[in-house]
Design brief:
By secondary structure, the protein is α/β, with parallel strands linked by helices. The chain has helices at about 15-30, 50-65, 85-95, 120-125, 155-165, 180-185, 195-205, 220-235, 255-260, 275-280, 285-290; strands spanning about 5-10, 35-40, 75-80, 100-105, 130-135, 145-150, 170-180, 215-220, 235-240, 270.
Length: about 290
């Protein structure tokens, strides 16, 4: 789950500049390769001279955003003709990207499920995690990464992924377990619901480098609880695991990631279900991770 290759989708927006700076900091601290890809409209049959002019202009803009940051490996800037989602998916698959980063608008998609947004499409199609970075994101170093947990293997994997991302950044990790008192007070397992014990064990088992804060929070929706804790901690990243495709022809990522990427409280990382499944199937979670 190490971060060795990062792919960043760019355009001329301020959100893209924020995404570039965020990704560059991760790349610099992890010693990762970073590529910036800009998809432009028009035919790929345009002259090579025109394409090179676009690449030079894009590189100048991107390097200006990075403001002289030093990298162990020189950033690569590419220009592809076509649609952004397709270009990013194809490039990520070709290079074996470990992370894709894009800029995020204030409200992604047409509904609170984020339908129609680039991040939503990428989270379904990418073979790796994707991060949506809104304007005003805080620096990653010495900050908090907030992870939604529920005792499942998926959120256990997300917690381990967040901790490994955090270590080179000297960032701290906070796991948030959300419960709804209205619906769970009268169950036989009590007000915290049947997943609370599993979530606590999940946090204890996942620790690799340092303690992880565990927060239980009552909220009408898990996304609300995660957003509240992220705001309180001044988080630089929220991490959530996507569920197996379901509902509306398999278009949903899961209620929590869908809501978080619609109005991201800070940069939000979504770990696609297929990515989690491939890693837990091929490598397997340790026995401790599954306890």
């Amino acid at each position: 789950m190490s971060i060795q290759r990062i792919l960043v989708g760019t355009d001329e927006s301020d959100e893209a500049a924020a995404a570039a700076a965020w990704a560059a900091e991760v790349a610099r601290r992890h010693g990762a390769e970073v590529e910036f890809l800009e998809a432009v409209r028009g035919s790929a049959e345009q002259s090579s001279e025109r394409t090179e002019m676009l690449r030079v202009a894009t590189r100048s803009r991107v390097m200006g955003w990075l403001d002289g940051m030093q990298f162990s490996r020189e950033p690569v800037v590419l220009v592809e003709h076509g649609e952004a989602v397709n270009a990013l998916v194809m490039r990520a698959a070709l290079t074996g990207a470990d992370l894709v980063v894009i800029g995020s608008t204030a409200k992604e998609g047409f509904t609170d499920r984020a339908f129609g947004s680039v991040i939503h499409q990428l989270a379904h199609r990418l073979p790796c995690p994707v991060v949506a970075v809104p304007l005003g994101g805080l620096p990653l170093t010495d900050s908090w990464i907030v992870v939604g947990v529920d005792g499942s293997d998926s959120s256990r994997f997300a917690l381990r992924w967040a901790e490994e991302l955090a270590a080179p950044l000297a960032a701290k990790v906070c796991a948030v377990y959300a419960f709804n008192e209205i619906y769970e007070t009268f169950t036989h397992v009590g007000p915290l619901g049947h997943d609370e014990s599993g979530a606590q064990h999940e946090v204890l088992d996942a620790r690799l480098y340092a303690d992880i804060d565990f927060v239980e929070r009552s909220a009408a929706h898990a996304a609300d609880a995660i957003g509240e804790v992220a705001a309180e901690r001044g988080a630089s990243l929220v991490v959530v695991a996507a569920r197996e495709r379901g509902g509306v022809g398999g278009l949903l990522l899961g209620a929590t990631p869908d809501r978080l990427i619609h109005e991201p409280p800070c940069p939000v990382a979504v770990l696609p279900h297929g990515y989690i499944q491939s890693h837990t199937t091929n490598a397997g979670l340790s026995q401790g991770d599954r306890a």
